[in-house]
Amino acid sequence: MEERERCGISGSGWLLIISGACALLICAFAWLLRLEVSEEPGGGVPVVWVTGSGTRYHRRNCAALLRSKPDAISLMEARQRGVGPCDLCGPPA
User: Fold this and answer.
1) What residues pair up with 71 in beta bridges, in sequence order?
2) Cβ(83)–Cβ(52) under 8 Å?
3) Residue 15 reports pLDDT greater than 60
4) b or e along 62-82 (b: 16 or more beta carbons within 10 Å of the residue's beta carbon)?
5) Among 25, 36, 60, 88, which one has the highest count of C-beta atoms within 10 angstroms of its own C-beta?
């Protein structure tokens, strides 16, 4: 029988590589779904973006805001104004 060349990585090495790749995918997915949070001390308040004449609130990177100069407000304030969530970017409801 011919002896095959090995790449030098053991079974546990492959397990570590695959686990790391899965962890990176999970982190990337969580980053995509993240809520934008205020940077004030003791923050944790979800922030959404609205335009002066808009009837919807958005995530910061929403394509609907590309040609606008939106203002950041708290999600609670957006609800009080009666502004609804954007159908395109799906901000927190």
Assistant:
1) 50
2) no
3) yes
4) bebbeeeebeebebeebeeee
5) 36
Q: Is the pTM of the predicted complex or chain greater than 0.70? A: no
Sequence-distant (6+) residues with CB within 8 A of 17 are: 9
Residue 42 contacts residue 67 (beta carbons within 8 Å): no
Q: 52 is written with which tokens? A: 């002066």
For the stretch 29-39, pLDDT in tens is: 665 555 555 44
| Biggest CA pair distance of the chain | 77
pLDDT digits (tens, 9 = 90+) for 66-92: 888 899 998 899 999 999 999 998 888
Which helix (H) or strand (E) segment holds residue 85: the answer is strand 84-85
